[in-house]
Every structure is written in structure tokens, then in C-alpha cells.
Amino acid sequence: MRFQFLLVPAAIVASAVPAQAKIYMDIAQAQQLMFPGATFEKNFITLDQNQFNEIIRDTNVNVYSREVKAWRVSTGGWFIIDQVRGKDDWISYAVAITPKGTVDQVEILECLENYNGITIPEWRAQFYGKKRGARFDNIGLISGSTLSSSQMVQGIQKILSTIALVLAPPAG
């Protein structure tokens, strides 16, 4: 009986290993990073059909879930966590919204390591100061993470719309 020894290229073996999600921080860590010393009042809601449709009309983006995980912050503003679809897995992130409804900070909570372009602070800083109705076509997409970065753009648009239309609509 003859045995044949096969050399398998390392690239093939490496591609067979499933990607690992990296946890950058948990919710409590993100809350304290984004709103140091503040307290948080949970304000989780489930969008009804009208709210769901209104957000889609307002943003022209996909809404993957009717569940909104929001906290009212004692210092004003909102802390929201959300997930968007990356190429192979979900990306969890947190957004700090000022009392005036603008993005103050964006932090990645968990994503696959190969999506790490969205974890670059300079890329996430492009969202700071954005508000509902702002132009988002000037947010640079990341080569190699195009789907992940475009989904983050749409997710933040959805969050801003949700706050303006559902969580803190103008009086009257």
C-alpha cells in the first residue's frame, strides 16, 4: 500500500477556519465611555407598522428589526445600540445622540475581525455632527469592508430617524 503525502497550501487551510467575532466593549462600557458619569433610563420599544413604514420612507434604508434598544441619558440625549448586517455576520454598535439630535459618538461593540476598517476612529468620526436629513453620501466607504461600512451608514440614518419620529418627536 502506497501513501501519498499532500501539501495543502496555508491559504486554503486558513480560509477554512471560521472568522472570529471580536468584542470591543460591552454596553455598560460604551455607556460610560460615551456619557461619563451619566445614568441611563431604559426606553426599549417595538415599532408598530406605521412607525416602521415611516422610518423606511424617511430614510429609504432597510429596517431589519422593529426592536429599538434605547436609553434616555440623564445628561440629555440618547444612547442607542443597534446591529447591521456585514458580509458574513452582524455588527453590533452603539451611538451617542446629543439633546439636539446629532451624532456625538459611534463605537463598535462586536464584529468579525475582518470588518475592522469600521473600528478605525477616524472613519467613525465622519458621523459626528450628522443629524436626521443630513447628507450621508459624503461618508467614505472602506475598501474591503464596503458592505459593512455602507450598512453602518444606513443604520445610523435609521437611528436618527427613529429618534426624531418615534422617541423624541417635536411637540405638536
In short:
With 172 residues, the chain is α+β, with helices and mostly antiparallel strands. The protein is built from five helices and seven strands; from the N terminus they run H-E-H-E-E-H-E-E-E-E-H-H. Strands 1, 2, 3, 4, 5, 6 and 7 form a seven-stranded antiparallel sheet that branches.
Question: What does the model show?
Answer:
It is built from 5 helices and 7 strands; from the N terminus they run αβαββαββββαα. By secondary structure, it is of the alpha+beta class.
Question: Helix coverage percent of residues?
Answer: 25-40%
Unreliable sequence segments: 1-16
* Total DSSP helices: 5
Biggest sheet character = 7 strands, antiparallel
What descriptors fit this protein?
172 residues, disordered N terminus, alpha+beta, 5 helices, 24% strand
Summarize the topology.
Layout: H1 10-16, E1 21-23, H2 27-34, E2 40-42, E3 45-46, H3 49-59, E4 67-73, E5 78-85, E6 90-97, E7 103-112, H4 121-124, H5 146-167
Antiparallel strand pairs: 1-7, 2-4, 3-4, 4-5, 5-6, 6-7
